[in-house]
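Suppose a classmate hands you a notebook page containing two proteins, each written out with its sequence and a corresponding row of structure tokens. How would you begin to make sense of it? This section walks through that situation. The first entry is reproduced here exactly as it would appear on such a page.
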Amino acid sequence: MARVKAIGMFDSGFGGLSVLREVVKVLPQYDYMYLGDNARTPYGTRSSDLVYEFTKQAVDFLFSRRCDLVILACNTASADALRKIQQEYLPKKYPRKRVLGVIVPALEEAIEATKNNRVGVLATEGTVVSKTFPREMKLRAPKIRVFQQAAPLLVPLVEAGERKTPAAKPILENYIRPLLKKNIDTLILGCTHYGHLEKEIKRIVGKKIRLVSEGPVVARKLNLYLERHPEIESRLTRGKRRTFYTTDLSERFKRLGAVFFGTAIRPQKITFR
């Protein structure tokens, strides 16, 4: 294992396993390491400073396990920590390593999809408060307006396995209606959990609105990124190994991990101080 150069993926909990599942479908040849900070989830209600510290710990851990590239599959971490890690932390401590997020790939997909320049974002409270989606969109496509909606009940809904219950529809409608009133034609599912609600959301928004789910988008964008950066791709090992870490090893993690990743996983517990 010491020789492995893996792609690392970090999330505050389970959601990033959905992204990893899609990435593995597109790029099965590489070795992957996943870290879920389940002991301190959710990040969506944490301060940005605390999210940065937690994310930095996760990046340090994955780099210490010989990951050369880490993806922040957590939208809150991507919103509150990614820029500072890329611009300040990596140049000083890890100049040859890279950390990527999930927000910019989703935005790039939405820019290509929208026809009327009105894009909705369904996200956690922390991501909405950070204003990362509208800020990053303004940098890339200033003509496109971004309308955000916090959806704090969706993560527990998915994790409780209740997305197909009668209670799910009114909760989703309550979050989605304000965005539909803005005449959006594209909706970004700005939390990795929300991809599990894609079918239910499609029934509400109809066929005319394009959904951007982060898992498939990140997989495609990562493939393109590695093609553009052979200096990173050439260092990655191709053993098809999948290693899983969590800060809270429980039967719940194993059960939900299998649901999110699509197959049984064997996680190992780590502790941050």
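The notebook's second entry, a different protein, reads as follows.
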Amino acid sequence: MAEAEKLLGVWAACARDEDEAWRTAVEGPATVDLAARLSTVPQPFLDPRVSVVALAGDILGMGSLACAPYCDDAAVRQGAAIGLWLFASEELLSPFSRTLANSDRFAAVDVLALRLASVSAPETWLWDDERREEAVRTFLLWSGFLPAGEDRDTARALLAARDSLSRNKALAEAYAEHRHREAIARRLADARAKEAAARYSSE
């Protein structure tokens, strides 16, 4: 549990506000399309000898994954690799009906590797329908999308109904505390920035 709590803390520190993610999400591809694609993740993506950092460089380009320092953990590595496959598959197979091209690609990979993989084993996403749907819905949200044909309230309720984290009371409470601390830190940083700007403009 200590390792899972640490990974959830890393995600809480790098993630933007979840309510904001829901507010700004726009319609994207259908969950059924992403689920079908996820279930066909090629073996090289799952091979622990293949560097996730190198894969991310090839697929996502410039930028860095928050999960990169933790990819020695098999679950973190698998979660990240599956997220990377969903992006790579648009070029290697075919684009989704609504492309993922303009999504928040790093956040989408990090949320699978850090938040979801810490409470739901990534190998189960490949064969368990409910866990795969949870992974797809989580991936879509942090990519900046709502599933095709769903409004915000419906999409949020359907993801909440499948949320593995909420079923682990201790981890859910620890994660809530991480999110609370990060929200306070963000508010303080915003207040300091506004105060500095006000001082600068009055000089």
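A careful reader of the second entry would note: DSSP finds eleven helices and two strands in the chain.
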